[in-house]
Specification:
Helices cover 46% and strands 19% of the residues. It has 508 residues and is of the alpha/beta class. Among the domains are: 109 residues, Rossmann fold (3-Layer(aba) Sandwich); 155 residues, Hect, E3 ligase catalytic domain fold, CATH 3.90.1750. Bound molecules: zinc ion (ZN). The site of zinc ion has 9 residues, from helix 11.
Length: 508
């Protein structure tokens, strides 16, 4: 008996009717088969997502009873959209000596070519099972070289929008005009001779410039922002700047035309006083830069000079700077120099900027000396770090295990990928097979990218917890920069009420 199977999909409107599919099926019957009985099996309005369909199950029952010699379909996807299901069904057909023919896709399991296709489909099914892959070999490895956004924290002033670069679906940075305007302002102000990071921060607060991402301005954040080449209109001067610092240049110098932004990536061995960029790479991005290179480079020179000053002189303000907030008005409290006392000491104290700059707040009634607040926080952080140690460690090892697992999955993908390439090279693919291959490739590629993105995210998290662990050990001997870093990670803000009492809001 010859079985003609038809399914009208629910996936697409105006899909070809079951009647028409059966017509095509009949025309695929060979002259010498015309004496055989023909039975049709129909599923109307079913999805191809699984094989739980009445008509299909009825047909399979007859296949298992050995009553069917041949199954004809209009297209392969009528059987199943799941490759794993499809391959299983093909195997069942084979066991019961059932020939399988697609009228539209020159697919016939009785021909040697059809047999080869079955083998290739099984390779694909293997990929699907291990949740994988992509015909574009090492797409991810080349991703960076082609100006893809490498993940990590999304830089201020941009949003990620889907884009197709070099035929690969990825994400592209798209400027957010209002935020870019803010960034331009920050660069312009800092590029002025007299403006330090600290002064820049005060200016932004005083002018009530809304912090980006809803968080608070800190000098650390401003410094990170100012250092980011994502904003620069990268030209040959910018190329020279990074090359001089030992950064590996991915993009050809000729392409540094002052149009596009750039991305610095790779492992940082970034000590504040001695940046080691030898493992870093710089790649030109597809988005347009927003800061002129002369201004951007001027800011870099200032930042470098600034680093040297902070390192050679002691404590310029307070390591709690940027974290202290006035409860009454919500403004940041900054340190100001106090009068010199009888012992010849000059004591800094925290003052509400709502009071000093805007005259809209009366501030605290008691004087909040920077040294007192620092001492108090020093003890609180010490306690906090001792508590955190165990928790951080255990969650950390969990991440490592997960990263390893993800890496193994990617290894599997790469193995299957090599297998696939072999199959593709050894046998011809017709256009239908290539269509299926492409469809699968998109699917698999996304899986692999997702794995890499997950690893990146875990690693980013890992780096942060690593800092905490190391600093907790050396907290007792922590220097100014170290304290500042720990405070940046641990503390969201310190709220000072009018009567001088303190409330710490922890990040962790
Ligand atoms: Zn205030």
């Amino acid at each position: 008996m010859i079985a003609i199977y038809a399914r009208q999909s629910v996936e697409r409107e105006n899909s070809i009717s079951c009647e028409t599919q059966i017509e095509y099926g009949r025309s695929a019957i060979k002259p010498d088969e015309r004496s055989q009985k023909v039975q049709t099996f129909v599923d109307n309005g079913f999805s191809g997502g699984n094989t739980n369909r009445d008509g299909f199950q009825k047909m399979m029952k007859m296949v298992r009873q050995g009553k069917v010699s041949k199954v004809i379909v209009y297209k392969l996807d009528r059987i199943s959209r799941s490759l794993a299901d499809f391959v299983n069904i093909l195997q069942e057909f084979k066991e019961h000596n059932v020939e399988f023919v697609s009228s539209q896709e020159s697919f016939d399991t009785s021909s040697p070519y059809g047999e080869m296709i079955v083998k290739i489909l099984m390779v694909f099914a293997e990929f699907e099972r291990t949740s994988i892959i992509n015909r574009v070999t090492q797409a991810y490895a080349h991703r960076s070289e082609m100006g893809f956004y490498m993940g990590g924290r999304q830089p201020y002033g941009f949003e990620l929008v889907p884009a197709v670069i070099h035929g690969i679906d990825t994400k592209k940075l798209e400027p957010i005009p209002s935020e870019i305007e803010q960034i331009r302002y920050i660069y312009e102000v800092y590029a002025q001779e007299s403006v330090s990071l600290r002064r820049l921060l005060d200016i932004l607060v005083a002018e009530n410039k809304e912090p980006l991402n809803g968080s608070q301005w800190t000098t650390a954040k401003l410094s990170t922002l100012l250092k980011n080449p994502i904003y620069v209109k990268a030209d040959s001067d910018v190329y020279d700047y990074f090359e001089c610092h030992g950064v590996r240049m991915v993009t050809e110098p000729a392409q540094f035309t002052g149009t596009h932004g750039a991305q610095l990536y790779g492992r940082t061995k970034h000590k504040p006083d001695n940046p080691d960029w030898s493992d870093m790479k710089l790649v030109l991005m597809s988005h347009r830069g927003v800061i002129n290179s002369d201004i951007w480079l001027k800011c870099q020179r200032k930042l470098e000079k600034n680093r040297q000053i902070t390192n050679s002189y002691s404590n310029p303000t307070s390591w709690l700077a940027g974290k202290v907030v006035c409860e009454k008005c919500g403004h940041t409290m900054t340190t100001v120099k106090g009068k010199v006392n009888r012992n010849g000491e000059m004591r800094r104290y925290f003052n509400c900027t709502g009071k000093s700059h805007k005259k809209t707040c009366t501030g605290t009634k008691t004087t909040i000396y920077a040294k007192d607040l620092e001492e108090m926080l020093y003890d609180c952080i010490f306690e906090k770090l001792s508590d955190l140690k165990e928790v951080t460690r255990s969650s950390n090892s969990g991440d490592t295990a997960e990263i390893n697992e993800l890496k193994l999955k990617i290894k599997e993908i790469e193995k299957s990928e090599a297998q696939l390439m072999d199959s593709m090279l050894s046998g011809g693919f017709n256009s239908d097979m290539i269509a299926i291959a492409n469809q699968k490739a998109t699917h698999f590629k996304n899986d692999k990218l997702a794995l890499y993105e997950r690893i990146d995210a875990l690693k980013a998290k890992d780096n942060e917890t690593d800092i905490v662990i190391n600093l907790s050990r050396s907290w007792k001997h922590a220097d100014y920069g170290c304290k500042k870093d720990v405070a940046a990670i641990l503390i969201d803000k310190i709220v000072i009420s009018e009567d001088g009492s303190t409330k710490i809001i922890w990040n962790i």
